[in-house]
Structures are given as structure tokens and as C-alpha cells.
Amino acid sequence: MPSQFSFQAGSRAAAIALIAGLAASSTPAAVIGTPQTVNGFTFINFDPALPAGSVGSNVNGISNSGHVVGTTVDANNESTFLNFTGTPALTIPLSTRTGATAFGINRAGQVVGTQNGAAFILRGNRGPQSLDAPASATNAFGINDFGNIVGQFTSGNATPGFIVESARSRNFITINAPSGPNIVNAQGINNFGLVLGFYQGTDGQAHGFMANAADAHNGVLTGTPVADPVIPVVNGEPGATFVFSQLLGVNDRGIAVGYYGDSTNSQHGFIYDTNTGTYTFLDDPAEAFNNGVEVTQITGIADSGEIAGFYTDANGAAHSFIACPTYAFCPDFPNDLPNQDPVQDRERR
């Protein structure tokens, strides 16, 4: 199994491809509230055009062209979701497949995910296709601009991570856990082959890891543990202590995103610099407590620094967000939404 894949930065067409199962036309998303700028990021909260019975949405990833991918959520958290892609100004339904969840998207509009326990990829106008390898791939979580895919597969009693060069590749790299039972979720991969995700530690909790595809030997790679965050004091959560953390996405600058869980069952977003080992904590400003629990998960980050994810409101319903750093230009970041603050927008640009 080769360990040298095509991991380099390079230009790619920015247009998102049409994907099998699209509706006849795209639809505007419902923006929730006024865009807000906090801690150096302008947040736009939204849900896609929701089918009957849906109460919210989860963005699971973002591409370098600024397009997100995610799912809508129904009132019972059932596994029949509307997968979607687009921006808060424009969303495109992908499918309403039972048991299917879209997790990652690249600049070309290729989408990866899982359906009924098997990894899939959507490319062009074709339907979902399974990966050629690993044969027992259960989840595809991330895809970079070169089409390299990361995820999880079954190997005996273990569920390690994997990297494949493309959906049609028959060779793959196995990613083993740094320690504990070999349960690895490889969540994201950048264009230089930096992989990150989380694994189950000896304490039974999730912890972040990193790995570099170029370091693989004989098709095997062992993840390097990432130090858990020292969590801040959060209003409304007195005495909360750290429980687990998950790394979910990384860009070509080595800036990663994820979230941690604490002893109150709340979850909070963070940005992690893999170059310096520093954490920056960031929650959606609309996040609210429901029965003592509040949630923000940052699930993806683009090279521009734009982040994406979801939060929960006072009813416990999840809603999607994108957020652009005030210093950056974020491709396809809407600047003509209802209630958009022109002063904030000028500052961001």
C-alpha cells in the first residue's frame, strides 16, 4: 500500500458540481436573526428550506469555495434526513435517503458521507458510489481538493481510520489509535496530507489526534495524540469540568476546528492551531440553554478561515451557521442577506 499520495496545494475550479438527486432548482435558506460579529467572527445562522416535519439542521463540513454540506433534522431525530449543500443565500437539496448523512465536501463539489453503515461519495451527476477500498469502510468523513478521502472502517474487533487517494483507489492507509482500543474517527484531511480526528482513549472518552500521510510505513500510520484543552469558565456552567474533545476539520494553514464536552453535558466550539498547540474557544452567539445544556460544534474550516457548524437554541433544536473572520474575504459569504449590518460587512471586507 503506497504511502505517497498527491498532497500539494493547487488550484481547482471553484464551481460546485451538480450532484445526483438535486431538486429542479435551488432554494434560499432561512436566515435566523441578524448576523452578529463576536470574537472576530461574523456569524450567520440559518436553516435550509426545510421539508415538512423538520425542526433544524446540522452543517457538517465546508469547502474552500465556501459551500457547506449538512443535513436537516426532524422532530424525532430520525435517520431520514434531507442532505443539502450551498450557502445561507442558496441551498441545494442532495437527497432524502434513509440513513444517509453527508459529512464532507471539497472545492469541486464532491460529497462524502455514510448510508446505512457504508461509506459513499457523490460525484457529478451520478448517484452515491461506495469506495473500492477499504472494503469494510463504514464512514467517509472528509475529502480534500485532490479527492483524498478519510474515514473509518471495520477490521476484526477494531475500527481504525483510513486514507484513500481516491474513491476508485484499491490501496489505502490504515490509521491506528495512539492508545487504547483501536477506535479511530479520521474526520478531515487538508491538501498537504495532514489528517485529524478523534479516537477512544483508555478512559473511554474521545480525544483528538493528528497524523501525516507522508509518515505512513507499509500502509500503516499511528495517530499522534493532541493535548486536551484546558477549558474556560463558562457562564451558567459553574464547576464544569472537561470530559472529551473532537477535532473535525483542518485547513491548509494547519488550523483545526472541533468542540469539547463538559460535565454539564454542554458542548463548546474551539479553534486549534496545530502549529503552536493553542486553543481558541468560540461559541455561536445565539447558542442557548435547554434544560441546562447548550451546544456549539464547529465542524469545518476553509482556507480563508471561514468556519461552519451548528448550535442549539432554547428549545434544544439545532441550527446551522457559517462565520467569517473580520480580517478575511470568505468566498460566497453572503453580503446581501435580510438584516445584514452594513457596518459589520464593511469591517469584515
Can you offer a commentary on this structure?
This protein has 349 residues and is mainly beta. The chain has a single domain (30-348), classed as Neuraminidase, CATH 2.120.10.30. Helices cover 2% and strands 43% of the residues. The protein has one helix spanning 342-348, and strands spanning 30-31, 36-38, 41-47, 54-62, 68-74, 83-87, 90-95, 100-105, 111-115, 118-122, 129-130, 137-143, 149-153, 161-164, 172-176, 184-189, 194-200, 206-212, 220-222, 224-225, 242-250, 255-262, 267-273, 278-281, 296-301, 307-312, 318-325. Strands 1, 2, 3, 25, 26 and 27 form a six-stranded antiparallel beta sheet that branches. The longest helix is centred in the last third of the chain and has 7 residues, at 342-348. The radius of gyration is 19 Å and the shape is globular. Residues 1-25 and 339-349 have low confidence and may be disordered.
